Amino acid sequence: MKGFAMLGLNKVGWIEKDKPAIGPMDAMVKPLAVSPCTSDVHTVWEGAIGDRHNLILGHEAVAEVVEVGALVKDFKPGDKVIIPAITPYWETVECQMGYHQHSGGMLLGWQFSNVRDGVFSEYFQVIQADGNLALLPENVSVEEGVMLSDMVPTGFHGADNAEVAYGETVVVIGIGPVGLMAVAGSNLRGAARIFAVGSREICQNTSKLYGATDLINYKNGDVVTQIKDLTKGKLVDKVIIAGGTLEAFEWALKLVRPAGTISNINYLGSGEYIKLNRIDWGLGMGHIKIIGGLMPGGRKNMEYLSNLLKYGKLDVKPLLTHRLKGLSEIEKGLYLMKDKPRDLIKPVVTM
Ligand code: NAD
Ligand code: ZN
C-alpha cells in the first residue's frame, strides 16, 4: 500500500509498505477524509520528537472499517468511524490513573505518526477498536467529522484543563484551528469575555463566530499591555495557550489572576526552557496553576463531542478553508499547513 511519510528530518515523500497485520482487538480501516496538522509540521521540520524514518504521517481521519479482529464487539466492516488522534492501549496503569494520553509512557497514547504508521495511507490499523473508534453520526459529513479527530478535542481540552466557568474572562493565545476550538470550548463552558490573540484576518473573523469578544493582534504591540488596557488593568481568570512561542507563558503569567490557570495545548516544538517570572508567579505562592495536556481520545469522548455536531451546538465548517480530493493531494495539504497562506485555517482531503 501507498503512504505519505516522513523519510527523515526535513524530508517527506510517498513510500510503499505492506498492509499492517491486525490483532484480535484491532480494526483495519481505509481513510475517507484526512487532515494534515501543524503537529506533522513540528514533527518533520522541527524534529520535535526526534528523527523518524519512513514513518507514515497523519493522525486525523474519518475512515471506513474494512476488517475487524475476532474480539471486536461493536464495529464491523462498512462502518464509518471517527479516528481520534490519540488511540491508547486501554489496560495500562496510566489509564487507571486517569491519563490514557500517557498509556505506556509519556505521550504514548499518541500512536499515529509518532510510534506507529499514521493515517496518510491507503489502509491503516487501529489498535483496540472498541475503545478507540466511534461511529460518525449520519448527519455529519466526513469532512466535518475529521475535525473531531484532533481540532475539537484539543481546543476543548485547553478549556477543560483551564476549568473555564460561567462569567469568566479567558485569553486564548494563538487562534489557528486549535485555538479557535479553544475559543469555542470556552464559550460553551460559559466564559463571558474571550480575548482572541492572533494576526490573520480569517482567524480573527472566525474567532468571533466561536464567541471571541475582543480581538488582539500580537503584531500591533505588547499583548499584555493591549489586554490590560481593555480590562482597565484587571487580571483575567484563565489563559489558554494554543500557539506562539515560549514567550506566551511569560505573557500568560502577567495576565492571569491569583489562583487562575494557564492551560497549554500548544506543541512546544522548539526552544529549551520556559521562563516563569518569580514575582508574576506570586513569589511562588500565587496558587496559579500551569498545566499542559495532550488531547484525550477514547470512544466516549468522541461520541460526546460528535453529539455537539449532530445536534447543531457546534459548527466546524468555518474551519474547513481548503478542500482537496484524492490521496495524492495529501502532500499539498501538508505543505499548506507548513506554509500557512493567509486564507488558510485547515485543509481537508477527501478520498
Ligand atoms: P496554527 O499554526 O494553525 O495556529 C497557531 C497560530 O498561532 C498561527 O495562526 C500563528 O500565526 C499564531 N501565532 C504565531 N505566533 C503567535 C504569537 N506570538 N501570539 C499569538 N499567536 C501566534 O496551529 P494549530 O493547528 O492551531 O495548532 C496549534 C498548536 O497545537 C500546534 O503547536 C499544534 O502542534 C498543537 N497541537 C496540540 C495538540 C495537543 O494534543 N495538545 C493537538 C493538536 C495540535
Ligand atoms: Zn493533529
Can you put this structure into words, describing what you see?
The chain has 11 helices and 16 strands. The chain is an alpha/beta fold and 351 residues long. It has 2 domains: 2-150 and 295-350, Medium-chain alcohol dehydrogenases, catalytic domain (Quinone Oxidoreductase, Chain A, domain 1, Alpha-Beta Complex); 155-292, Rossmann fold (3-Layer(aba) Sandwich), CATH 3.40.50. Strands 3, 5, 6, 7, 8, 15 and 16 form a 7-stranded mixed beta sheet that branches. A 6-stranded parallel beta sheet has the order 11-10-9-12-13-14, with helices on both faces. Helix 11 links the parallel strand 15 and strand 16 (346-350). Helix 5 packs across helix 6 and helix 8 (223-231) packs parallel to helix 9 (247-255). The longest helix has 12 residues, at 177-188. The protein is globular and about 60 Å long. 49% of the residues are buried. The mean pLDDT is 97. It binds nicotinamide-adenine-dinucleotide and zinc ion (ZN). The site of zinc ion has 6 residues, from loops.
List the helices and strands and how they pair.
Layout: E1 2-8, E2 11-16, E3 27-34, H1 38-45, E4 55-56, E5 61-68, E6 80-83, H2 93-96, E7 124-126, H3 129-132, E8 134-135, H4 142-145, H5 151-161, E9 169-173, H6 177-188, E10 193-197, H7 201-209, E11 214-216, H8 223-231, E12 236-241, H9 247-255, E13 256-264, E14 289-292, H10 299-310, E15 320-325, H11 330-339, E16 346-350
Parallel strand pairs: 9-10, 9-12, 10-11, 12-13, 13-14, 15-16
Antiparallel strand pairs: 1-2, 1-4, 3-5, 3-7, 3-16, 5-6, 6-8
Helix pairs in contact: 5-6, 8-9
The chain binds nicotinamide-adenine-dinucleotide and zinc ion.
